């Protein structure tokens, strides 16, 4: 099936970036949102991003010409001839289901419908349509024009054809697709991200370190592009709290008590988008790299221990292998190397000891996964 026109529903942070990526891959694109305020802002942001690429010589085609391939509308009518639609509206399940009901009634029967949801189960979205086999998760990363990863999440209903078409589309968009074998709340990316946030928060709330010390260890010790709190600000604390709640309430991950995120959310200090979160930014929507001291007393192995434990859980449950987890972290979060590879380098026993220590303080989520215990007993690593 050849895709000629792509529809994007929602012109926010992710939606406008997905529209840009689609137009850059030479597709005609229609973007729908509820108001011209959102659409005009999206136009500006796409133009800004395309200009950056053009000025650096990373694209040859003029931004104005690329823009000609994108139409904007407040009416779903423009979706009538779309071959593949990607939904990127806020993470409210009722809203997503309403959007899919509408798309199902408006688009031709051959059209594939994807959701960019970061954590909502695809099957619960598919169930409102009459084409369950054509519904799939296509999870992009912020900022979509820069981040190479796309998680491909089939539900129990998704057909092989839909999976193939979506993987092919991701590749044509110059992205690296990682397919989950089994659908799991939060997918791979956000389950690992959740675990990083939980441990970062625990360290601060238990008085082991400050926010800046945690982030300095992430940036200077682990060489990540952003600290964990900085990344939470970048993604949006509302988005972070949302994915946290979805994953924990699904019953597939034990919670870790953390008040800081909740307090920021309630105070509407949502990070870069509001100009203030764990850090302050020059203006709402304007990110500037956070300045941090170089040294930190935080042990990088402790900071990633819960995330590595989650990685072991994902492997043990047959959702992905260690290599897939590493691809997700390298291309979805710009890690310099994979999480599981870092774990091997820092030592599985070291990771295990931190898990046991924190578990002994009463945090049940840190109970070491049996795969980690097995690796220790056989003196192996995830790759070694
Ligand atoms: N379009 C075009 N260019 C862009 C851009 C955009 N949207 N955003 C950034 N850039 C360019 C900048 O112009 C700059 O170019 P230059 O080096 O030639 O000057 C370059 O990218 C680097 O940007 P900055 O100098 O502003 O800042 P950084 O060096 O810190 O890089 C970053 C920014 C690429 C975002 C980097 O910090 C990073 O990789 N951070 C991690 C992001 C991440 O983990 N994203 C995933 C979040 S999780 C998610 O999205 C899932 C969801 O479900 C929650």
UniProtKB/TrEMBL annotation:
<dbReference type="InterPro" id="IPR013328">
    <property type="entry name" value="6PGD_dom2"/>
</dbReference>
<feature type="domain" description="3-hydroxyacyl-CoA dehydrogenase C-terminal">
    <location>
        <begin position="186"/>
        <end position="281"/>
    </location>
</feature>
<keyword id="KW-0560">Oxidoreductase</keyword>
<dbReference type="InterPro" id="IPR006176">
    <property type="entry name" value="3-OHacyl-CoA_DH_NAD-bd"/>
</dbReference>
<dbReference type="InterPro" id="IPR008927">
    <property type="entry name" value="6-PGluconate_DH-like_C_sf"/>
</dbReference>
<dbReference type="InterPro" id="IPR006108">
    <property type="entry name" value="3HC_DH_C"/>
</dbReference>
<dbReference type="InterPro" id="IPR036291">
    <property type="entry name" value="NAD(P)-bd_dom_sf"/>
</dbReference>
<feature type="domain" description="3-hydroxyacyl-CoA dehydrogenase C-terminal">
    <location>
        <begin position="302"/>
        <end position="378"/>
    </location>
</feature>
<dbReference type="Pfam" id="PF02737">
    <property type="entry name" value="3HCDH_N"/>
</dbReference>
<dbReference type="GO" id="GO:0070403">
    <property type="term" value="F:NAD+ binding"/>
</dbReference>
<dbReference type="GO" id="GO:0016616">
    <property type="term" value="F:oxidoreductase activity, acting on the CH-OH group of donors, NAD or NADP as acceptor"/>
</dbReference>
<protein>
    <submittedName>
        <fullName>Dodecenoyl-CoA isomerase</fullName>
        <ecNumber>5.3.3.8</ecNumber>
    </submittedName>
</protein>
<dbReference type="Pfam" id="PF00725">
    <property type="entry name" value="3HCDH"/>
</dbReference>
<dbReference type="GO" id="GO:0004165">
    <property type="term" value="F:delta(3)-delta(2)-enoyl-CoA isomerase activity"/>
</dbReference>
<keyword id="KW-0413">Isomerase</keyword>
<dbReference type="GO" id="GO:0006631">
    <property type="term" value="P:fatty acid metabolic process"/>
</dbReference>
<feature type="domain" description="3-hydroxyacyl-CoA dehydrogenase NAD binding">
    <location>
        <begin position="5"/>
        <end position="181"/>
    </location>
</feature>
